[in-house]
Amino acid sequence: MRFLTPIALRSFASAQKSLGLAAESIIIKIGENVARLSAETIVANPQVPWSSIKRMHDRFAHRYEVTDYDAVWATINVDLPRVRAAIASLLP
């Protein structure tokens, strides 16, 4: 996530295809890593929205619908910073 920096929605929209695919790939990788966590870790850390991360992974990895790039932008610019902060709080 260190490569993700906030970007204006207008800039994101103009480069939607390439940035959107890159963002989707990052979201998918994050979801795959969350899936490897133990149940104990997940239960012990309810402040992290684990199920939301998993649902977002599933949405992009399995293409349940046409990609909504506004949702991708919101995930990268709103949701991931919160997730990052929650996960960072777990680290020593």
TrEMBL record:
It comes from the Bacteria. The keyword Transmembrane does not apply. One of its GO terms (cellular component) is toxin-antitoxin complex. Keywords: Hydrolase, Nuclease, Nucleotide-binding, Phosphoprotein, Toxin-antitoxin system. One of its GO terms (molecular function) is hydrolase activity. InterPro entries: HepT-like, HepT_RNase_toxin. It holds the Pfam family HepT-like. The keyword Phosphoprotein applies. PANTHER family: RNASE MJ1380-RELATED, UPF0331 PROTEIN MJ0127. This is DUF86 domain-containing protein.
